[in-house]
Amino acid sequence: MQQTRSQVTERDGLYELEAGGDVLDSPRYNHDMAPTKVRERTWNKWHITALWVGMSICVPTYTLGGVLTAYFGLSVGEALLAILFANVIVLIPLTLNAFPGTKYGIPFPVLLRSSFGILGSNVPCLIRALVACGWFGIQTMFGGLAIHLFLGSVFEGWKSLGGTGEVIGFMVFWALNLWVVIRGAESIKWLETLSAPLLVAVGIGLLVWAMPNVSMTELLAIPPKRPEGASVVSYFAAGLTAMVGFWATLSLNIPDFSRYAKSQKDQILGQIFGLPLTMFLFAALGVVMTAASVKLVGVIVSDPVTLIGHIQSPVWVAVAMALIIVATLSTNTAANIVSPTNDFQNIAPKVINRTKAVLLTGLVGLVLMGHELLKKLGLIVSDISLETVYSNWLLGYSSLLGPIAGIMVVDYFLIKKQRLDLAGLYRDDVYPAWNWAGFLAFGVPVALTLLSLGSDAFSWFYSYGWFTGSALGGIIYYGLCVMRAQPSAVKTAV
């Protein structure tokens, strides 16, 4: 016989829900969005470290140094410091927003119901989902190119397909990504744990190949591309903001993964071990490889897929491309599909299950890359560069996501005091449908960011968007909640 009311139990600081009819029959609940059971929280610190290694070692990370030197006017040394500092900074919202996921076993959209409302949570969720689908398409383009080059190294006739071969590779890689995520969290954990040591080996191999062809002293002495005599502070701060923006997405939806962590200690140590150093070293490798590419292949090449494609040995190209395919797959599945899968389910959990949400994510990513795919097929002609879109996006989307991160941290730690009504997050009678405090705290920084685009005096607000947005969003949310005095969820929390 089904129990009527849900029960919440606690084991060593971890809470789990025994769902009763009040939750099971709720339109806000399905099995995939349900809190994980304590027995399902099997990821230790090394699994989480492997997750970050797997996500960090990817083509976009490799190109970050080049983006900072070419678009943000930093020297090589300044660019690498910006990457290191940014990833130390982003650890703060990552670890803080991971806390409720670990404690209550809930995914990102369910946590947002506390700060934006049961229905209102869909707005920030869909903003996050759209960004992830865009990145999914970009990463799938890189993975598809790797498959095309792999097949070209194995079958001589494949090379003649050109852009058509790249599109076929895109579709194969697209389907492979969706298959991994449909299989569930254990499949992702297995992929990340397997790929992490392989990816480290790839990095070491590329470094051994490149080092005889580059002088680190000369590389670090290259002058920055900014006006002579200009202060480094504003350029460095803008680059730092963009690099924080690189993982601004994961700083929001980290509960999607921390809900599987064994303990708070595991999620904290795993992120500290896995993120900052991996990002720094692989970005540094990208700088070295790009500098060495002139001597290695005769031209400057800024991405590893194209660079390795210039190697004359088909065997080494095939091996390297296979490993790059694994690298891109491990990044794409975890960083860019898991979140929109949960976000789309949050719209209507009884209608959209995990499989449908994964397919919807794939479809949106495919549509967003439609322009690039048609260009490769020769059906349209365009000067729009994927690299330009990628580099400009970093700063822009961090400005939008910063306020959400600030609101989430303030809501959980200062307003709710780390106490949530777990069953209430899946019903309509505890938390409001729309929490207007959350929307005002989100809307004001976003509006100021948009206004600052047309004002030289306030351009700094956009340039430092993640920092200004997250701080202002958190402050406004705290002030509104204090004025409102007593959020009902604080009284009824378990």
TrEMBL record:
One of its GO terms (cellular component) is plasma membrane. It is found in: Membrane. The keyword Transcription regulation does not apply. The keyword Magnesium does not apply. Keywords: Membrane, Transmembrane, Transmembrane helix. InterPro entries: Pur-cyt_permease (IPR001248), Uracil/uridine/allantoin_perm (IPR045225). Its main location: membrane. The chain crosses the membrane at residues 49-73, 79-99, 129-151, 163-182, 194-212, 232-252, 272-294, 314-337, 357-374, 394-415, 436-455, 461-481. It is a multi-pass membrane protein. One of its GO terms (molecular function) is nucleobase transmembrane transporter activity. Belongs to the purine-cytosine permease (2.A.39) family. PANTHER family: NCS1 FAMILY PURINE/PYRIMIDINE TRANSPORTER, PURINE-URACIL PERMEASE NCS1. This is NCS1 family nucleobase:cation symporter-1.
